Amino acid sequence: MPPQNLVYLFAAYSIIMVVLIGYMLFLSQQIGDLRNQLTALRRQRSEGNSAQATHGNRG
Amino acid sequence: MNVRTLPLPNERQETRGGTLTWLDGLLAGSSAVGFVVALYAAFVYAPTEAVQGDVQRIFYFHVSLAWLAYLAFFVVFLGSIVYLWKRSEWWDILARSSAEIGVVLTTLVLITGSLWGRPIWGTWWTWDARLTTTLILWAIYVVYLMLRAYSSDRMRGARYGAILGIIGFADVPIVQMSVVWWRTLHPQPVIEEGALPPQMLVAFMISLVVFTVFYVFLLRIRVRIEWLKEEIAQLQESEG
Fold it and tell me: Which of B13, B54, B116 sits opposite A6 (nearest CB)?
């Protein structure tokens, strides 16, 4: 096989690895962002509930 | 002391999109080790093909990716049928998650096929039956993902997506049989007909098993993302 054909072989395997690793990183970043968003929402709701409870006790 | 840094009781709740489990760790670790073994098998263990030379080694990952794409779309098909039957959100999430992975895998099949075709056929692309039906398969599931992403009514989007997921799967057997039904540049099936030398078959089976484990890992992660999105949407709705 002419040596230049090896370029296609290495390009194919490199692209597979880069795309799969990139996709995994994309998914892990998405999970991280969503978890932070969920934590913030829960914190917000919890604070809202505490404020309501305090307001109710005073009332 | 900053009391805001203390975890609130609600933050400790286990979610369906919760933390990674030992099974995820096992799948990720097995995939990483498996890929090293699969690369060794493809580049060192498997003999060089007499006619095409080393470039034929693209086969091991290219065909494994194609088979896993079929599996991913079969999961979409199955998930869509069960969703329409039971209206269970879990099956819809499974179908949507598998469709995205299937599109990534099919994209890689098209790219690696093109890189293999250039030195062997002398062209990057030809409107050959196998290549064209694979491109159509890719397009069907890209449309599926767009339908799911841009649908304003979640339930309607899930219903239409399920219908497309079922109809779209009809292209998978067409892709598989295209090399038998039509005259194509693409090689005839060698694995099903037992025409592959034993060492090449072993190298292929290793990469197929590794990609299957990796697919299961990706699917679990992708499903978790969808559950997290659902939980956030529900919380936002309840906040009103």
Answer: B54
